[in-house]
Amino acid sequence: MSNQLNVPVPAYIKAIAPYVGGRPIAEVAREFGLDEAKIVKLASNENPLGFPASAERAMQKAVADLARYPDGNAHDLKAGLARRFGVPMDWITLGAGSNDILILAAHAFMQPGASAVYAKHSFVVYALATQETGGRAIVVPATADFGHDLPAMLAAIEADTRIVYLANPNNPTGTFLPPAEIDVFLAKVPSNVVVVLDEAYNEYLAPELRFDSTDWVRRFPNLIVSRTFSKAYGLAGLRVGYAIAQPEVTDLLNRIRQPFNVNTLAQAAALAVIDDADFLQRSYEVNRAGYGQLTAAFEKLGLRYVPSYGNFVLVKVGEDAGAGARVNLALLKRGIIVRPVGNYDLPEWLRVSIGLPEENAAFIAALEAVLEG
Ligand SMILES: *Cc1c(COP(=O)(O)O)cnc(C)c1O
């Protein structure tokens, strides 16, 4: 008997490069001999305000029930979301983060021999979802300003295409598609192709840019809108997100999700924050102020950045393909964690999450020192 794995593995599984997240604070502290308390992490688009107090209170109550399985149907949370969006409860699917939703969509509609369309420099999970279901990726070049090229994406749809992923705003570029353009796009996508509209950063949009995506869900039975509690709601560690789609789609996603994919504490916390308008407003304001702070510094340093509609900014830190990795390492040594984006084919750039004023200032000072040095 050999002591090596002898089970045939599909080539498309072997080809997957695992997801690489922002580096944890404890890991960076260990590796660079730094004090954890002094490390600034601006690498995963987390909410710098931390965990909302409303969620903490709800979780404390829910702790009493932890010996029992969660409500697999998550009745209360679905009812809360249905009320919030004015849709029936059976239009909602919950996920362990919206990541789960993106993957569920692929498992429901993709298969070997099918293709998925998404934009270059768009969220890496679309590639992973396509790969793990044996599908073929059709990656559409971005516009000159790093956005989704919707006419080109439409033209890229082939007979075997089953999913189109759109991120609005997109991560890691922060670009935004005006609703009027999405409207035209949705009306032209063939009805046998599912559109997954990933709105993880929707709550950071300025009021005048907001729009009602559920209106599209009413009009388009092939649309899945995906949202999350991880970003503006500050619950990234709990893993809870949701999809809004018509019931036929919801029913399919429900068949393949894990029965208890959103745990008891996550359900309780998410329900509590749906109505925490104050926390959401503060998240929005801190983000706007931080965006101004970071982009003013980039301008002063003569660094190019992509105007962002999310809670992060993509900034170009050099001209050569080693620049992103080099500046990232130098920042790590100074206790600043940001995100290199070479895996998005942006090796000269870094993605910086917007933090509290003092965190942004620490990053700016370190960046200045690194670029001078
Ligand atoms: C962060 C992010 C998500 C989802 O994160 P979850 O924590 O899994 O909800 C989805 N899409 C984009 C574009 C993101 O940046």
TrEMBL record:
Cofactor(s), names only, from the UniProt record: pyridoxal 5'-phosphate
GO molecular function, one term: histidinol-phosphate transaminase activity
EC supergroup of this enzyme: transferase
Any Pfam family hit: Aminotran_1_2
Alphabetical list of InterPro entries matching this protein: Aminotrans_II_pyridoxalP_BS, Aminotransferase_I/II_large, HisP_aminotrans, HistidinolP_aminotransfase, PyrdxlP-dep_Trfase, PyrdxlP-dep_Trfase_major, PyrdxlP-dep_Trfase_small
Catalytic reaction(s) noted: L-histidinol phosphate + 2-oxoglutarate = 3-(imidazol-4-yl)-2-oxopropyl phosphate + L-glutamate
Coiled coil stretches, renumbered: none
Domain Aminotransferase class I/classII large: from-to ranges: 38-361
Keywords, sorted A to Z: Amino-acid biosynthesis, Aminotransferase, Histidine biosynthesis, Pyridoxal phosphate, Transferase
EC number: 2.6.1.9
Any one of the GO BP annotations: L-histidine biosynthetic process
Modified-residue entries (N6-(pyridoxal phosphate)lysine), positions: 231
Functional pathway: Amino-acid biosynthesis; L-histidine biosynthesis; L-histidine from 5-phospho-alpha-D-ribose 1-diphosphate: step 7/9
Top-level taxonomic group: Bacteria
Family that this chain belongs to: Belongs to the class-II pyridoxal-phosphate-dependent aminotransferase family. Histidinol-phosphate aminotransferase subfamily.
PANTHER family registered for this protein in UniProt: HISTIDINOL-PHOSPHATE AMINOTRANSFERASE (PTHR43643:SF3), HISTIDINOL-PHOSPHATE AMINOTRANSFERASE 2 (PTHR43643)
Subunit structure, interactors included: Homodimer.
Protein known as: Histidinol-phosphate aminotransferase
Organism in which the protein naturally occurs: Derxia gummosa DSM 723
